Amino acid sequence: MTFMEINKGKPFFIYLPSNAPHSPIYVDEKYAKPYQHLKVKEIVNPEFYGMITNIDENFGKLEKLLKKKKLADNTTLIFMTDNGTSDGISKDG
What we know:
InterPro entries: Alkaline_phosphatase_core_sf (IPR017850), ARSB (IPR047115), Sulfatase_N (IPR000917). The chain is an all-alpha fold.
């Protein structure tokens, strides 16, 4: 965040990788809890979905900071991941 403040007057690039959602599957209880009561076959790992919720929350914090620092209008955010299994468990290798 300090880097963005210091460099806000000139173009910059930030690569901000996330290891989630990925094993080891650990996330604070507050993120997994909303998914624990679901009795849906597809929800086999509430912690995995909690990780996604946590990513979404942090991405929102980044967007809010960019707006607050008046950087949002000249910024492109691209979210990518290589962790594409639907429930955190690969069934086909």
